[in-house]
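Subgroup meeting minutes
Present: P.N., E.W., G.H.
Scribe: E.W.

1. P.N. recapped why we're keeping a running log of single-chain structure predictions: easier to compare across weeks, and new members can see raw inputs and outputs side by side.
2. G.H. added today's entry (87 aa).
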Amino acid sequence: MKQSYRDLIAWHKAMELVTEIYRVTQNFPKEELFGLMSQLRRSAVSIPSNIAEGLRKIIKRRIPVIFRECQRLTLRVRNADINCQQS
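Output recorded in log:
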């Protein structure tokens, strides 16, 4: 049986992050709708999307690239969160 991205723990954790980001950002001021809120949501959604795409493209040399991209996006979300907390 083929493994689905939905079987991956990393994908489930990434989806939990997406849900949390959407929950937190719904309380952002309306003027942030197209700014920080949008960037946080897009970055968060990119993580599980990249994991799913990475599994589909299960070429060994491509896997590290996909996970590095996920790490980069995770850092972007964390940095944005830190900037929000400092504001």
